[in-house]
Fold this protein.
Amino acid sequence: QQQVKQSPQSLIVQKGGISIINCAYENTAFDYFPWYQQFPGKGPALLIAIRPDVSEKKEGRFTISFNKSAKQFSLHIMDSQPGDSATYFCAASGWSGSARQLTFGSGTQLTVLP
Amino acid sequence: GAVVSQHPSRVICKSGTSVKIECRSLDFQATTMFWYRQFPKQSLMLMATSNEGSKATYEQGVEKDKFLINHASLTLSTLTVTSAHPEDSSFYICSALPGLAGGGLYNEQFFGPGTRLTVL
């Protein structure tokens, strides 16, 4: 199965709070796990990504935690701001035939209240 | 760097007409480009993988005769929606993968800004 399951579907957080989005995958051949941020009417933009040989990666207020044995990874947004309000997609990358492909999660609509 | 553009950003057409959407990698060469479709409040669904100089590979359930893909150069892929119908109305997004055929050492896809297609 090439699925990536993402939760929650929507999330409301107060300004300054921590936003946590979780994803789980099934295919152990996936070897790159990016998170994308998408604003309405725009294409997705890469936020942060991690490889499975690392358990955590932090870039500014954004942290990915990765649990290889559980096949789960999560995005933590510290000190959430209203400008972070967007839809977030986790994804998993792996080879499909002769090309690398991304499999996306279902998305999480984050609303940060001022 | 790594900018991908799409043209047009929005298009409205009548049912039965054909629409062409262009995807360009502006500052890198992309042997592989991808076309996605996104319905409101849903995730991106891969339609096809486009490799420069060869036929596109379509995902299951995507009609290759309806969604024509041409990857004529290392910086340009086009998606033509033929005989468009209202159910084809969607947000179409392309992405480009730098590097060697199939991605080589690169994992990261760079996404275009999307094209909103409305078929009346």
User: Anything to note?
Assistant: The interface with chain A takes residues 4, 6, 32, 34, 41-44, 46, 49, 51, 57, 91, 93, 95, 97, 101-103, 106-114, 116 of chain B (CB under 8 Å). The two ends of chain B are 37 Å apart (CA to CA). Residues 101-105 of chain B have pLDDT under 50 and may be disordered.
